[in-house]
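step 3/5: co-fold with adenosine-5'-diphosphate
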Amino acid sequence: MAQFKGTDTYVASRELEVAVNAAVALQRPLLVKGEPGTGKTVLAHEIAAALGYPLIEWHVKSTTKAQQGLYEYDAVSRLRDGQLGDPRVHDIANYIVRGKLWDAFEADAPVVLLIDEIDKADIEFPNDLLLELDRMQFFVYETRKTIAAKHRPVVIITSNNEKELPDAFLRRCFFHYIRFPDRETMEMIVKAHYPEIRQDLLREALNVFFDIRQVNELKKKPATSELLDWLKLLTIEDMPPEALRSSDAKTAIPPLYGALLKNEQDVHLFERLAFLARRRGG
Amino acid sequence: MFAPFILALRAAGVPASITEYLALLRAMKEGVAGFSVDDFYHLSRAALVKDERHLDRFDRVFGEIFKGLESPTGEAPRELPAEWLRKIAEKTLTPEEMAQIEALGGFDALMEALKKRLEEQKGRHQGGSKWIGTAGTSPFGAYGYNPEGVRIGQEESRHRRATKVWDQRTFRDLDEDEALSSRNMKVALRRLRRFARTGAATELDIPGTIGATARNGGSLDLHMVPERHNAVKVLLLMDIGGSMDDHIRICQELFTAARSEFKHLEFWYFHNCPYERVWRTNRRRSETERPMMELMRTYGPDWRLVFVGDATMGPYEIIQPGGSVEHWNEESGEVWMNRLTRHFRKAAWLNPIDKDHWRYTQSISIMQRLMENRMHPLTLAGLESMARELAR
Ligand SMILES: Nc1ncnc2c1ncn2[C@@H]1O[C@H](COP(=O)(O)OP(=O)(O)O)[C@@H](O)[C@H]1O
Ligand SMILES: [Mg+2]
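step 4/5: write tokens
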């Protein structure tokens, strides 16, 4: 069995590797939690790449229902076809729309199934999928067929932590909480994305970044993706590292801050903090 | 190995179950973790802890239990002892072990006993005969884990320590009390749900279609309706700026976590008693202030109004004009309360103070009267009764 390990492009801690490998070996779902931007979604891609499996992604929204992951019966189209005398109407199977779990179960080789941001859906959503994920099969009433996994997929479930998940669901998973990267780890992550980046620019930028994250009043603290975007802009603009130096979060607004602060209120807050600091300083 | 580790976890409030423990043993057998102690720590954590708030408790218990793995000089071994590992690997629950647990009155009774034992040990220095895991003298020693390996409650060896991952306690700040958790809160608030069909028509209206098709002489006439959505709108008015702050923070978090249960959720603050102004951000009070009258114009009577506060103050703060402790109020709090409850016909008050004490505080009694007895304690049961009340 191929093992999951961090790669050139993805920085994985040993604890994350162990959790992933346990879930793969025991064929149980891995639940990954953590602040937005801690690499949960990308992790599923990396696991698929490491194992050499295709990835099937199911992005959950607030209106997503568990049943949609299995299949949906499109009665409306069938009625319409019936009216129009379309011969397809005689086979109900023509109106069964497969969901992501079905795709994952019927795949000819094992796959990685990502159920992304499960906490977005209704509180009962995970419970409704419990049995199917456990047994790796489900029944299609309309065609009286059981769809069973040919190969148990590797199931990766992510959550942004907004909601708690039901106990029965949790007991079946392995769990890993990705902590927000510390400075050292963040440096590795940045280098994984921009191997060529100037060390002095990176150092100054990380100072600013972690300073900004200290400001507790922010509605949305910048995370890894914002940092990466910002660094890219700084590089494109060929910003000299000194330009960042004065910008300790409390005294001035860092250049191109729009990439770091996405929320208008946060920008205002920042401008005010900077203004106050300047007045006090000057 | 089985009993002490998992029981100690449960005693510490990590709800690990036997299912999860068996998963850990199987993963050991599969060789997921290799032989290093750190890997074993990571693996058992991924198998047994499902909530980041419990990670710190796990670290503490792990530290306690695995003191037994240290050499006399206090150095943590880098590898699990082979003998010990073999024992774990052989081990799943045997019928005899199950029988043993039953003989002790089942898992829960065992838990209880263990908890008591742990409490007795608190504050003690030296191992006595009741120390858990001291082979032979306690029922907890009977679980056949390797005596030179793992034990709970082994007395401190004073001189150490090489830093171990679990001793760094990196998850300390994630631990929090969870009597009212966001999940049980949400379940309670679900009673509030009011479904309405709004938005784009995406669902087949079956009765409508049948009726129309029949009228059409049998040729199909499809009718669609919008999907049902929860239409509940909640306005939270919260007492802030004093003894209430901790409760308010918790309450706000809980309601925010339950946000998906509502169509809209709005927070506003007051201090002690609602008067003519409320504000949205306590730190920037004056900038975010709004007249109460405007609030009533913004939020219609279909909004459910929930106050959160201890209603504990001088009675004059409610019943007298100018009674407020921080500004001159032209009209009394009572007048404002009446205005609010007349406008928002569905209203309730959540009070963090123990219900048994309400009647000893005059201001609570007054507020309870103004609320027409719709004050509920800030507990799970209180939330449930509030939700039932507001759903009516
Ligand atoms: N450990 C990591 N190694 C490399 N890149 C990372 C890592 N963690 C996050 N990133 C980067 O950060 C960004 C956000 O990651 P994403 O998976 O979308 O986060 P999440 O799903 O947790 O919100 C991506 O560009 C990703 O490449
Ligand atoms: Mg994501």
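step 5/5: annotate
The interface with chain A takes residues 15, 17, 19-20, 23, 26-27, 30, 32-33, 38-39, 42-43, 45-47, 49-52, 55, 170-171, 174, 181-183, 186-187, 190, 204, 219-220, 222, 227, 257, 260-261, 283 of chain B (CB under 8 Å).
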